[in-house]
Design the sequence.
């Protein structure tokens, strides 16, 4: 995975958002980032986002148990269209609606969706970070997007 | 608008505030230990041998330090209650039942949140003493990772920490001394 040079503040903010994608809880996300940073700093300075994201993920598994990130349900076989579908036109959504819809996703789904849509990772880069097969990553994104669209269409936050 | 746009907009609004960012920046700028190759490796091996052979090795310090560090961090209560009995229901993700320490009453109990102690899921319970001081009480399930933990009282960076075992749990009480 290519590593870009970004400022420390930007690395920390991106680490926080990834922690938030995993926990969906601001306090836990900050704690998770703090713990991961402490673990990383024992070895070397934080210079790259990918290194910190991996540490955050490992710490999340330590704290909240591996089951939270295990994919339990069978996944549909999908291809690259799972990523392309993120760029399909979608009606505008209110902030509280997307917050509520994200809360209802499983951590593994939210994580895959976050890395693809916000961090702009490729399926292979997500597979490298999470240790999942690339096909599983694409299926997770596909399922997360479908669920999210479903929740948003129902307007359940209202 | 696309779903990608909506997600980017949502997460762009989620930011560490200035105080949190400053704390983390300080941690990140702390210098990691310098690497000195074989010398370090040799020192580690010798240290490990001494650790194993020396019966009085202090293996409790990291637990005292973690409790003191957590006590200093402000936190939001995830379960607000004035009864110890209600903590179990309010914190269903714990793998143990929080217990009222012997000799304690419910007086001053404010609530609790999830935290971790040496990687174990723990409850961080906030209590207000009669004199207004805020104490934090930690509880986690006793187990192999606490095998070498010695109970006792210590002051770590201005935080008095008392650790003891009770009802199958490791308990740690922290209060600021200055």
Sequence:
């Amino acid at each position: 995975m290519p590593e870009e040079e970004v400022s420390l503040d930007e690395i920390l903010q991106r680490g926080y958002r990834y922690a938030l994608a995993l926990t969906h809880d601001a306090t836990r996300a900050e704690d998770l980032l703090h713990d991961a940073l402490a673990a990383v700093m024992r070895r070397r300075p934080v210079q790259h986002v990918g290194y910190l994201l991996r540490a955050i993920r490992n710490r999340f598994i330590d704290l909240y148990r591996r089951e939270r990130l295990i994919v339990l349900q069978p996944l549909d076989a999908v291809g690259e269209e799972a990523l392309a579908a993120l760029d399909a036109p979608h009606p505008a959504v209110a902030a509280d609606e997307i917050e509520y819809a994200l809360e209802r996703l499983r951590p593994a789904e939210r994580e895959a969706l976050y890395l693809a849509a916000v961090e702009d990772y490729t399926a292979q880069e997500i597979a490298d970070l999470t240790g999942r097969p690339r096909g599983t990553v694409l299926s997770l994104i596909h399922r997360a997007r479908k669920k999210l669209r479903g929740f948003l269409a129902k307007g359940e936050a209202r | 608008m696309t779903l990608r746009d909506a997600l980017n907009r949502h997460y762009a609004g989620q930011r560490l505030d200035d105080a949190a960012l400053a704390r983390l920046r300080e941690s990140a700028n702390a210098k990691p230990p310098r690497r000195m190759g074989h010398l370090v490796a040799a020192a580690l091996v010798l240290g490990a041998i001494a650790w194993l052979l020396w019966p009085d090795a202090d293996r409790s310090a990291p637990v005292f330090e973690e409790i003191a560090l957590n006590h200093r961090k402000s936190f939001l209560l995830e379960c607000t209650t004035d009864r110890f009995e209600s903590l179990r229901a309010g914190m269903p993700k714990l793998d143990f039942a929080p217990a009222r320490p012997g000799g304690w009453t419910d007086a001053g109990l404010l609530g609790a949140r999830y935290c971790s102690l040496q990687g174990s899921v723990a409850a961080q319970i906030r209590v207000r003493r009669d004199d207004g001081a805020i104490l934090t009480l930690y509880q986690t399930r006793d187990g192999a990772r606490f095998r070498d933990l010695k109970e006792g009282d210590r002051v770590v960076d201005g935080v008095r920490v008392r650790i003891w075992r009770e009802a199958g749990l490791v308990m740690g009480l922290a209060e600021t001394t200055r």
